[in-house]
Amino acid sequence: VLQPGVLAGGRVLGARQHTWLEHYEAVRSPLDLGPRRAVVGPRTPVPYLVSANLALRRSAFWAVGGFDPTLRVGEDVDLSWRLAAAGYRLVYRPRAVVRHHHRSRLAGFLASRARYAGSEAELLRRHPASGRWLGLSPGLAAALTGPAGLIAFASEQAAASERLAAATGLPRARSLEALLHGQAASSYHLARQLVRYWALPLLALPGPKQRRLLAITLALAVPGIADWARLRPRLSLPAFLAAHALDELAYHSGILIGCAHQRTLRPLAAELRLLARG
Predict the structure, then answer these.
(1) For the segment 177-229, what is each residue's pLDDT rounded down to a tens digit?
(2) Is 10 helix (H, G, I), strand (E, B) or coil?
């Protein structure tokens, strides 16, 4: 039975923008869950709430045991998921804003990213059903296998745009544009997952590494360029890409450290879902 909304969280924004890292954090802080309202839960676009800005009923807090004092990082994720599992409704309301002093020194920035990532192994040990999933259309999945798969991708998009145009009355060009926008979003998330979780394991595989290294480099650079164009930070493109690369690689290091500490590869696993288009 779903209980009333007892846990509500708001947006966490930077308190200042004096250094290049603070400019980066202003648009890419992991504490900022975005501008859209959402119902919160594992494996959703807003999977948890941040303890820097939340309000909840005391009775619900103690009903699930409160924060776990043994967790040094990820205690808010753990609390959110225990409340969700108990049937409570969690909501995210970005109009409730607090200002947070982000890490302005490089050492602190890198250490915090690695700690956040390192908590995934422990959190998945406690909540094994809350792992990641990736959604790809069959055509995009085929395109990732090599040049021959591009034919399947093109055929899929052409057929899907015809169906979408017929169903909505949109011009075919607009329908195709909308579909390709969705495919670009899927590719963006896949690229970030590749760098954050699988970069070093892929490079460690036997055989020639040039193509894998190129794929990882592109997966690191292209989302960074897209974010710079989309988010319009107060940084030059080279400065933003430097912070982006440090962010992603520190996170990847933390993932591997957490896996080694917990003796598990669970954070590296992701469920692949083939999604129909159009």
Answers:
(1) 999 999 999 999 999 999 999 999 999 999 999 999 999 999 999 999 999 99
(2) strand
DSSP, collapsed to helix, strand or coil, labels residue 13 as strand
* 190 Cα distance to chain centroid: 10
> If DSSP codes are grouped into helix, strand and coil, which group holds residue 34?
coil
Contact 41, 90 (CB under 8 A): yes
Alpha-carbon gap, residue 44 to 163, rounded angstroms: 28
**Cα separation of 55 and 199, whole Å?**
38
Burial class of residue 24 (count of CB atoms within 10 Å of its CB; 0-12, 13-18, 19+): buried
Beta bridge partners of 97: 11
Closest-CA residue to 265 (of 181, 207, 204, 217):
204
Q: Is the torsion defined by CA of 268, 112, 24, 40 positive or negative?
A: positive
3-state secondary structure at position 138:
helix
Residue where the block lists tokens 């040094």:
72
81-139 confidence digits (pLDDT tens): 999 999 999 999 999 999 999 988 999 999 999 999 999 999 999 999 999 999 899 99
Phi–psi pair at 200, nearest 5 degrees: -65, -40
In 3D space, the residue among 53, 82, 51 whose CA is nearest the CA of residue 65 turns out to be: 82
Please tell me the distance from the alpha carbon of residue 158 to that of residue 278, in angstroms, as a whole number: 10
| Alpha-carbon distances, residue 5 vs 67, 88, 171 (angstroms) | 18, 6, 42
